[in-house]
Design goal:
Length: 643
């Protein structure tokens, strides 16, 4: 008989009493067990349940896990994939759930529970507002199970939800981990057992000065060698290990630096090679350059994992790590976001990361989330954390903040999209401002901040009226069209109004949508746009400038995202049937990026096709484009169906 931890038992008792539950607990504490309990309960009662996740990788993993347990009772909707979309157990991204609440609410009538995984993501600057809107528009008949990493203002979040929904919502807090963590530090080429030792080795008595923005020391700094650290962990029986680095290139370089190491016995080597070959064959990766590059590393128990890799190759690495065939994996921080990949040890390449403009110290919450991957429940008595410290890169007080600092509060990032405003206006008219009063932002802030946020909504509404999305207190045709798009609304609206989008062929439509979603990484060389798409680029650019001018007039932030046609040539070749390996010659983006953006364009095509306000002609053009794009490595459903 399975014995629940006290916090799990408390949560389950609340669920049995008919309550909604909000749980705050450390990574690895066992929150998923409670979610599985709700799913089993719903299936027994012949009720539907929805499980939302912040990223598609986590949605995909949950789909596979739950499908193994509940078979064809499980479906998934992420924009990339649609499998069994009317199943009693539905896995979906939070964006999909929010969109359904606004435009297909009746489709949720049979679902009695919503599980919000990683609900602290409401604090995410770019996408947090989606979580907030999902809670604001939650149907009265749905109960909530919300799972969160440790946050100090969990009761404030719960009080807001109770305030707007009158839910019987119970809070369960677990502060302790079943597997304790021991933190070490690599500094001055040595392993330190405490922060006091770090201070003594690296910060006491040393004189530092700045020159041209860089920090220097008057004394010699001893290097922290990665192979030395990994060997130390290996000898201390600390494998398997997750090594968190903060760039794709760094992950690959670090893995290569260990090519002289071997963590596998001969029998393990034989087994992992056979399994790797079988997976590569299943996912059509045999002889694929990225898979071939990994092969000698895999045979030594080493791998890397980042967003620039092919999704199928990432899947192979994840499966190898899950079955403990990988002893050390170098990965970016997204690997820590809910994906169930625990290890005995975790290494931080550093405690600062680049945020797009400069380096900042990690949040305590981020550190805890990643560190929480150390120590496998039911396997390890203790988990081990190793932080690499270079005194020239980080001040001592910032180390304390990241490692020992108080977890940051969850703060609202409410920023209502144009499509949301149009949907609300259609139902509430000028009364839509009352929705802001139901937001977490309103609940958290003083009157001055409330006026500012409400002003932003009013300004967006005024802009929509000026641009003809609303006339005489009614939504116009183009307003109805973009109310179903949830992203890039204004550019779609202007192309729709001018009948430009209806006149496109399937290739032009595909290129347009890719240009809207593609964001080139900094430093990539600029590529020429094929001549046949120059007119399209020029027209879209002119519309964006006009929209930005009007947004500036109303002081609306952030501005419309600028399109980029830099991947047009590669996408054009793909739509005309070229092989994936061949099209990579026409872009400087990583393989994984190419697939991700192609899939994002596909998602927009599916939204246009399913939009009830799309013309028959545009639906047909969208379907042709979908057929040209959704094949091979770009077809995400194929990847999910591989057993």
């Amino acid at each position: 008989m399975f014995i629940y931890d006290p916090f799990q038992k408390e949560a389950i008792d609340h669920i049995e009493d008919g309550n909604s539950v909000l749980i705050s607990a450390p990574t690895g504490a066992g929150k998923t067990i409670i979610a599985e309990y709700v799913i089993k309960k719903c299936l027994q009662n012949r009720e539907g349940v929805i499980y939302t996740a912040p990223v598609k990788a986590l949605s995909n993993q949950k789909y596979r896990d739950f499908k193994c347990q509940y078979g064809d009772k499980v479906g998934i909707l992420t924009g990339d994939v649609s499998i069994n979309p009317n199943s009693p157990v539905m896995i979906m991204t939070t964006e999909i759930f929010r969109n359904k609440l606004l435009s297909e609410k009746s489709s949720l009538d049979n679902y009695k529970w919503i599980i919000f995984d990683e609900i602290h993501y409401i604090d995410n600057e770019e996408r947090g507002t989606v979580w907030e809107e999902s809670i604001i528009f939650l149907p009265e008949h749905m109960k909530v199970l919300a799972l969160s990493a440790t946050i100090p203002n969990i009761n404030e979040l719960a009080e807001w939800i109770r305030h707007i929904h009158k839910l019987d919502l119970k809070v369960v807090v677990e502060n302790n981990r079943s597997v304790p963590l021991h933190i070490f530090y690599q500094t001055q080429g040595k392993i330190a057992n405490s922060l006091d030792e770090v201070k003594k080795l690296s910060y006491t008595g040393k004189q530092y000065y700045l020159r041209h923005g860089r920090r220097y020391s008057t004394e010699s700094i001893h290097p922290n060698r990665v192979p030395d650290l990994v060997k130390h962990i290996h000898q201390a029986n600390g494998l398997p290990c997750i090594y968190f680095a903060f760039s794709r290139r760094r992950c690959k370089e670090l893995a290569e630096s260990l090519i002289g190491c071997d963590f596998m016995s001969e029998s393990e080597k034989k087994e992992v090679n056979e399994f790797y070959n079988s997976l590569c064959e299943k996912f059509n990766l045999l002889y694929e350059p990225g898979a071939e590059f990994l092969r000698p590393l895999i045979s030594r128990g080493i791998a890397y994992h980042h967003a620039g890799m092919l999704p199928t190759l990432k899947e192979v690495v994840e499966r190898l790590f899950t079955r403990r065939s990988i002893k050390i994996i170098f990965t970016t921080e997204t690997f820590a976001l809910g994906i169930n990949m625990p290890a005995r040890s975790v290494i931080f390449d550093g405690l600062q990361k680049f945020d797009g403009t400069g380096f900042r110290t990690m949040k305590a919450r981020d550190f805890q989330q990643m560190a929480g991957r150390a120590g496998r429940r039911g396997i390890d008595n203790e988990g081990f954390i190793y932080c690499r410290i270079n005194p020239l890169e980080i001040d001592f007080d910032k180390i304390i903040h990241a490692v020992k600092g108080k977890t940051e509060k969850v703060v609202s990032q409410f920023n209502t999209a144009y499509a949301t405003i149009l949907n609300l206006y259609q139902n509430l008219g000028e009364g839509l401002y009352e929705i802001y009063e139901r937001s977490f932002h309103f609940f958290q802030n003083d009157s001055a901040h409330r006026r500012e946020a409400e002003g932003q909504i009013k300004d967006r509404l005024l802009l929509l009226k000026e641009m003809g999305y609303i006339r005489k207190n009614s939504i116009t045709k183009k307003g109805l069209f973009v109310s179903q798009m949830f992203g890039h609304e204004l550019i779609f609206g202007e192309l729709y109004e001018r009948n430009f989008i209806n006149k496109m062929n399937e290739y032009e439509l595909g290129i347009l949508l890719l240009s809207l979603v593609y964001e080139p990484r900094r430093g990539l060389p600029k590529r020429d746009v094929p001549v046949r798409y120059k007119r399209l680029e020029k027209f879209v650019s002119s519309q964006e400038k006009e929209i930005k001018r009007k947004e500036s007039k109303y002081n609306i932030r952030p501005f419309i995202k600028k399109s980029s046609f830099q991947m047009s040539e590669a996408f054009d070749f793909w739509m005309h049937g070229e092989e994936f390996g061949e099209i990579l010659r026409f872009t400087d983006a990583d393989e994984g990026e190419v697939v991700r953006y192609f899939r994002m364009a596909l998602q927009l095509l599916r939204e246009i096709k399913s939009n009830p306000y799309t013309s028959v002609q545009l639906k047909q053009t969208s379907q042709k484009a979908i057929e040209n794009i959704c094949r091979g490595i770009v077809d995400a459903e194929t990847q999910l169906r591989v057993e």
